[in-house]
Every structure is written in structure tokens, then in C-alpha cells.
Amino acid sequence: MKSTLDKLLRKASLNVWQLSKEEYKCILDYLGNVNFLVFGLGNDTELWRFANQNGTTVFLEHDPEWLEDSDDVIQVKYTCKMADWEKLFSELVYGNYTNLHIDLPSTILYRDWDVIFVDSPQGYNDKQIGRMQSIFMAWKLANDKTKVFIHDCDREVEDAFSRQLFLIEHEVKRLRRGIKA
Q: Is residue 70 part of a domain?
């Protein structure tokens, strides 16, 4: 089992757009037999499935190119572009969550999530869909015991939204390239 996990970890961390080995290990420490929600499919999907094989893992994906026909994958629709992040952040600060909500099935909304990982959508330029909605929904779905990981918090939008919504010292392990969480 350890060798399979090591192989999957090596495979996942070969892609420069994915997490570093240290970032993976940080999240892996919380998996095994938990309810694990992942925003986004990727080259690390099999790693997450394997690492939490005795628990429930669900992936939320919006990109048709990444979607797969699997019981643990749910298609979602994001509506917020990166270019609108400051307007959305202002609405968030004033308690207007209307534009940040994502329609999700009740099986997602009413489950107690032990671990939530936000790694989608891409959000790397103004033409892309940003992570504002996925960070907001992670906040909405989390309880006081949920471990929430938000990848790419070295980027302005992820940093602003995670700081606004979570008590970082207590509730969020922020994954930053080159910095241990």
C-alpha cells in the first residue's frame, strides 16, 4: 500500500501545475477514512481516491475536458470570472453572497465534510473562472472541525477570499509554494 501511495505521489507531483510533494503530504496526513470533498479533478485524482479509499471522496468539476463518468464526480457550474473578483469581494464583505453561491446536490450540502480541498477552477488570469465561488462554498460547507485546504494562496484572490472567510490560524492550512503549511 505504501509503495502504491508513493508511486501515485511521484506521478502527481511531476506536473508543475499540481502541488509539491510537501503540499500533498500535508493533506494526505488527514485522509484515510474521512469525508473528503475536492474542488477539481486533475493528475492527482487517483492519489486522492487511493489515500482516502476507506472514506468517501467526492470531486466537483466544471471543465468538460476533465469530467469523467464516475460515481464520485459531480459536474458544477461556476459563473464568476477573475476580472470580477474585486466586485465579488466587496459584496462578500458586506454580506451579499448571492453571486458566490453554487448549486450543489443535497448529498453535498448536507454531508459533514472532514476535509475540503479547493484546487479549482484555474483562476490564473482575468479571462478565466476564478476560485471565489469554490472558496466561498468550502466555507459554507465546512463545520468547526473541517480541515480546509486552499491551493495557490500565494495568489491575490485566493489569499483575500480565504483570509476574509476563514480564521487561518485555526481553520485553514494555506498551501504556499515553498512554504510548509
A: yes
